[in-house]
Write a structure and sequence with these properties.
The complex is a heterodimer of chains A (326) and B (241). Chain A is mainly alpha-helical. Chain A is built from 14 helices and 2 strands; from the N terminus they run H-H-H-H-H-E-H-H-H-H-E-H-H-H-H-H. The chains are: A mainly alpha (326), B alpha/beta (241). The interface between A and B is large, with 31 and 45 residues. The structure holds adenosine-5'-triphosphate and magnesium ion (MG).
């Protein structure tokens, strides 16, 4: 346990030192984006991995955050640090409104509903004048790669720490897991599943909105395809699943691996870009089949089994004789 | 006499055209153990589900501590003091035994540390403390049934509904569970228990309520109910010649 903390702190320390060691802005930009994806993957995992509800519209929160920032900065000249928290709040409110009717549904319907929500939000951005329609929006430029690097790092580290505390230390985490494991049993123990799922949904949406805000100000140009398209959600999903759901560390690792792969491919093998999606798809299919718990889930599961085997004999699971009664 | 703890008043619950529970009434006083028996499909579990809020009754009311609780959701009733187990056990399989019980303890002990302390106490009571750090999915059936009871108990309920917590256990395990149930009564918990094993019901119940095809066909002290011709007929399944 404490070794895990040390590794995280070490990783954070190394990341803090990166800009002073690496002067290459291209490389800094890539690491900034990698950190962004870690944030998106873990925020998606909060709902999917901890409650079992697959949100196929996560990109909508990212896009809402990005557009909120662009609108505030362009229309009323808001400073970025005012727009940033507002973007998070707006994403949270969208989650609240979307979650109340949909989180009562079974998981599969929720997945479809969130996907539809994302398409609807994208359509709104496409048809409105104020958002620039398909042309998108430009933001005031602030060219300072180091600033965005540290901002991204600080925000994602903060999100990670908050999630870690809430989900692994505080009562909230166990309550959420209880609902994932068995919502009827959870209900009989005083937990309101819809309310807790809604809290998790909002907890997942707000950081995505904040990341959208940073992204918009950093890249200075957003349009419905780039921040509200399927790709944002799809990549976050793939990263989280590949790394290992419900573990926070897993999706972070998945984000680093998938993003590195993608970057390498696009930078050095750009002639073979079509291959990217094919290989990615193949890797994911293989991952789901051979590592259903993701990379991190498989590793930590293996370590845990070894530890248990050393400590106590594994109890043979008997068949549940009561199970045929209904 | 103070007012009854639980009053079930002409409760009916139907599924499609089927009366799973039909106009059932009975009441429970504080500190009682009541056995709820009846053949398979008689409506015992359905009645549990209605009392614990999983189904709203189609007709009738349920009063708990003098308050009308009909149709209130389970999570509110749990906090009000109704704990229940599930006939088909529902452990949080991926979590440890201790975590399972900590979750249940949050209802009365919202802080993590206090909840954990409380959970340990419960596990000592129910004899699962030595398995506290095992995955719930690694427990045997007897262990899982104990875990069901532990979770319901961790709510610190006034009323505890036990649905076949003894069935499927070997005689030694069964005796330990019966002992546990009696000790819970001594702690002041009122218990409604469903069980097919007559030895259990007859030994521990103060009164017995008998259901058949959703209707209450008898109620009384165990000895009288055991000799009731209607009850015998229901269990033998055909009219005596
Ligand atoms: N959710 C449901 N939907 C439809 N029918 C149901 C449902 N639950 C129970 N029933 C029916 O209601 C009747 C009563 O079932 P219930 O499970 O309450 O019986 P029981 O007395 O608990 O039986 P057992 O001793 O086998 O546990 C049965 O005919 C059953 O098939
Ligand atoms: Mg039953």
């Amino acid at each position: 346990m404490s070794r895990k903390y040390l590794l995280l702190i070490l990783a954070f320390g190394i990341l803090l030192a990166v800009p002073s060691v690496i002067q290459d802005t291209f490389f800094l930009r890539i690491i900034t984006e990698a950190i962004l994806w870690i944030g998106l993957a873990i925020s998606w995992d909060v709902l999917a991995g901890y409650t079992g509800y697959l949100n196929f519209g996560h990109g909508a929160f990212f896009g809402v955050g990005a557009y909120t920032t662009a609108l505030l900065m362009n229309l009323c000249g808001c400073p970025f640090f005012v727009a940033l928290p507002v973007a998070g709040v707006v994403a949270g409110i969208v989650a609240l409104i979307a979650g109340i009717p949909t989180l009562r549904l079974k998981g599969a319907y929720f997945a479809i509903a969130t996907w539809a929500l994302a398409r609807a939000v994208q359509q709104v951005a496409l048809v409105m004048d104020i958002t620039g329609g398909p042309d998108g929006m430009r933001l005031p430029t602030y060219l300072h790669p180091g600033f965005f690097y540290y901002l991204m790092l600080g925000v994602v580290a903060g999100i990670f720490a908050l999630y870690w505390f809430l989900l692994e230390k505080a009562p909230f985490g166990l309550k959420v897991k209880a609902i994932r494991e068995d919502d009827q049993s959870a209900m009989s123990l005083g937990l309101n599943p819809t309310k807790i799922k809604l809290q998790a949904f909002i907890l997942s949406a707000i950081p995505a909105g904040i990341l959208g805000a940073i992204y918009a100000y950093w890249i200075t140009y957003i349009d419905p395809a780039s921040v509200l398209g399927d790709l944002v959600t799809d990549q976050a999903v793939v990263m989280a699943v590949f790394g290992g759901l419900g573990t926070l560390i897993g999706p972070a690792i998945g984000a680093i691996i998938i993003f590195s792969f993608k970057t390498y491919f696009w930078a050095y093998l750009s002639n073979y870009q079509v291959l990217y999606l094919i290989i990615l798809g193949g890797v994911i299919a293989a991952g789901v089949v051979f590592l259903p718990n993701g990379i991190w889930g498989t590793i930590s599961g293996y370590l845990q089994t070894r530890r248990t085997l050393k400590q106590e004999p594994v109890v043979q699971e008997k068949t549940d004789k009561g199970a045929h009664h209904v | 006499m103070s007012e009854p703890l639980l009053q079930v008043n002409a409760v009916t619950k139907t599924f499609g055209g089927l009366h799973a529970v039909f106009q059932v009434s009975f009441q429970m006083n504080s500190g009682e153990i009541i056995g709820l028996i009846g053949p398979n499909g008689a409506g015992k579990t359905t009645l549990f589900n209605v009392i614990s809020g999983f189904y709203a009754p189609n007709k009738g009311q349920i009063h708990f501590k003098g308050q009308d609780i009909s149709g209130k959701p389970p999570y509110k009733l749990a906090v009000l003091g109704i704990g229940r187990t599930f006939q088909v056990v529902k452990p949080f399989a991926g979590l440890t035994v201790l975590e399972n019980v900590i979750i249940a303890s949050f209802a009365k002990h919202p802080k993590r540390r206090q909840a954990e302390q409380h959970a340990w106490k419960i596990l000592e009571t129910t004899g699962l403390a030595d398995r506290a750090n095992a995955q719930a999915s690694s427990l045997t059936l007897a262990g899982r049934k104990r875990l069901e009871v532990s979770k319901a108990l961790a709510l610190e309920p006034t009323l505890l509904l036990l649905d076949e917590v003894v069935a499927g256990l070997n005689p030694t395990e069964a005796d330990r569970t019966i002992e546990l149930i009696l000790s819970l009564r001594n702690m002041g918990i009122t218990i409604l228990i469903v069980e097919h094993i007559m030895r259990v019901i007859m030994n521990i119940s103060d009164r017995v309520v008998v259901l058949n095809f959703g209707q209450k066909i008898a109620e009384g002290i165990p000895r009288d109910v055991a000799m009731d011709s209607g009850v015998i007929q229901a269990y033998l399944g055909e009219a005596p010649l």
